[in-house]
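REVIEWER CHECKLIST
Item 1: Sequence provided? yes
Item 2: Single chain? yes
Item 3: Sequence as submitted:
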Amino acid sequence: MNTMEYFKKMQGGGASPPRVGLEEVFWSWLGAFLGIAAVALLHCRIVSGSGLVMLIGSFGASAVLIYGAVASPLAQPRNLLGGHLISGLIGVASYQLIPDLWLASAVAVATAIAAMHLSKTLHPPGGATALIAVIGGADIHNLGYLYALVPAASGALLMLFIALLVNNIPKSRKYPAFWW
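Item 4: Structure as written out by the authors:
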């Protein structure tokens, strides 16, 4: 490929995504509100006093997928749960084994992507889950490998439960498209 062909690939040229209707916006909003509210409430009222953490930033991105893009392969239960669990484990291992923050961060995210690909659990927020394990500070680091279960997998599981309830209320939605 020559240089011009390489840069020509960056022009795009496909159609922009279609606009969704107000009903779709409403159900996406309601699901995201209830899912994040459930995890945040659990964190604030029950878990935070125990030294555990339930609410991590990558759940915001998961909410976009599981409540706003319900048909996406990346939003399915296998991807949601497996992506967060695998990425959490890899992130903790990277933090514990690699002393340089910049290198641990890069290894965590890149390895999480590779592992999610290989396990057919690709979930983009998993990259953030791996990165949070490295840069998350003392509250996250003190959890060690428990981070992969609480908050990563258990928070994702709670959000999945809400997604199953809310996404199947309207006739226009069906969730999940597949389980495993």
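Item 5: Key structural point noted by reviewer: The CA atoms of residues 28 and 68 lie 5 Å apart.
Item 6: Recommendation: ____
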